[in-house]
Design goal:
46% helix; 11 helices; 5-stranded mixed barrel; alpha/beta; 5-stranded parallel β-sheet; rod-shaped
Length: 421
């Protein structure tokens, strides 16, 4: 500085030097700003820290590369270091020693770290996710009792299935108390035996508002829940870790209601169509069975007649062979007794009569054993409807099985309703 008359005149060097000396008195400090224009050069990483104003900054490249969550262009950070003034170029710079993500960037980094852990443990794998039941007995709902998400779920659920039963557990859906409350709600619903599916939901919001659904404790509670879990957190663009761990992720509370219960009218139509199909199938099966039975009846009757004829023939043949044998026996007996001819004759006659009686009884028995005689006496032959095999033991019958009952003058179809041993 010099004097020119009454003036004090400063050189540019004097000015920049004074500024540099003033800045030397400022200690290291933390700055919150966005990172922009990241670039590396000669062992340094250069970037701009910007809010309404901006300042150039640099950081050792080795230290930068070792950061657990390096910032990207646009990341909000907290940067720690000294502000320096480069007097020769009249340039203000900050030499950064530490840098940490802040705001959403920090939250995203925390989410990514937890996501990697859950992925390694297999909790995000599609193979572990369970199918939802077609018609749940009760639906568990975890959300705020005063939120729009609750109204959306209940309105759409009862529009589709008016008889739907819902167990609502009221929880805070943001803030420090939200995550522990959601975990308790999931455990409580898992203890109710007839809760077959659980919906976890809330409306949209900033990432910070959704962080309860990105917490490790909530993710693990969802994975451990006995019933399948449907997650509907935020809007379409919002994807939380709870969504990824859940058995099904949907974009809205309305979609969650549609996912867990069928449309009652559509279900009734499907059941009616199935009933008609079943009736048509039964009618067709009955017609086919009757046709098969009609085809087989003549053959069965002929077979029974043939069995009866063969039996009668065997009885007649046996009688023819037995009569000469008895006559020869009588002659030998008469020749051997001489003096006892009368007594022997009487004995032979008695014996012949007894033999004739036995022969008649045998013939009658053979005749009685014939199938036609059995049917004529009022008995019936029970056969398997499919194989026509005679069923002689109760153990061969099964409840619900079809049988054919052959009687003296026709046959009938029947179904076994109960078997008594």
């Amino acid at each position: 500085m010099k004097r020119v008359g009454s003036r004090r005149v400063w050189s540019v060097r004097d000015v920049t030097g004074a500024l540099a000396r003033r800045l030397e008195d400022i200690p290291s400090l933390w700055v919150e700003a966005e990172v922009h224009n990241l670039r590396g050069q000669r062992g340094q990483v250069y970037f701009t820290l910007r809010d309404e104003h901006q300042v150039d900054a640099s950081m050792n490249a080795v230290v930068f590369d070792r950061l657990p969550a390096p910032p990207r262009d646009g990341s909000l950070v907290h940067a720690y270091g000294r502000v320096e003034f480069w007097a020769e170029r009249t340039q203000l710079r900050m030499r950064v020693e530490r840098i940490e993500l802040a705001g959403e960037g920090l939250l995203v980094a925390q989410m990514e770290a937890l996501r990697a852990v859950l992925d390694r443990e297999g909790l995000l794998a599609e193979g572990r996710k369970r199918r939802l039941p077609l018609l749940p007995r009760r639906v568990g709902l975890v959300t705020s009792a005063t939120g729009a998400a609750r109204d959306d779920v209940l309105r759409n659920l009862w529009e589709r299935f008016p008889d739907g039963d819902v167990v609502l557990v009221d929880v805070p859906v943001q803030g420090d108390a939200a995550a522990p409350a959601i975990v308790r709600a999931l455990r409580r619903l898992a203890e109710i035996p007839d809760v077959d599916v659980v919906i976890v939901t809330r409306g949209g919001g900033a990432l910070e508002d959704l962080m309860a659904f990105n917490s490790e404790e909530v993710c693990r509670a969802v994975a451990a829940c006995r019933a399948p879990v449907v997650s509907a957190v935020g809007h379409e663009r919002d994807v939380t870790l709870c969504d990824l761990v859940a058995d099904l992720r949907v974009s809205t509370p309305t979609a969650a209601a549609r996912a867990v219960v069928p449309d009652a009218r559509e279900l009734a139509g499907r059941l009616e169509a199935l009933e008609l199909g079943l009736i048509r199938g039964l009618v067709r099966a009955r017609g086919q069975a009757e046709a098969r039975l009609e085809q087989r009846s003549p053959g069965l009757a002929a077979a029974l007649r043939a069995v009866g004829t063969r039996a009668e023939s065997r009885v007649a043949t046996a009688g023819d062979r037995l009569a000469p044998a008895l006559a020869r026996h009588a002659e030998r007996a008469a020749a051997g007794v001489h003096g006892h001819e009368d007594r022997m004759r009487r004995a032979v006659a008695v014996h012949a009569r007894e033999a004739g009686v036995r022969l008649s009884a045998a013939a009658a028995m053979l005749d009685a054993l014939g199938p036609q005689r059995t049917l004529a006496r009022g008995y019936a032959i029970v056969r398997d409807a499919a194989t026509t095999r005679p069923l002689v033991d109760a153990a061969a019958l099964t409840a619900g099985g079809d049988v054919t009952i052959q009687m003296r003058d026709g046959s009938a179809q029947a179904r076994i309703t109960e078997v008594q041993g």
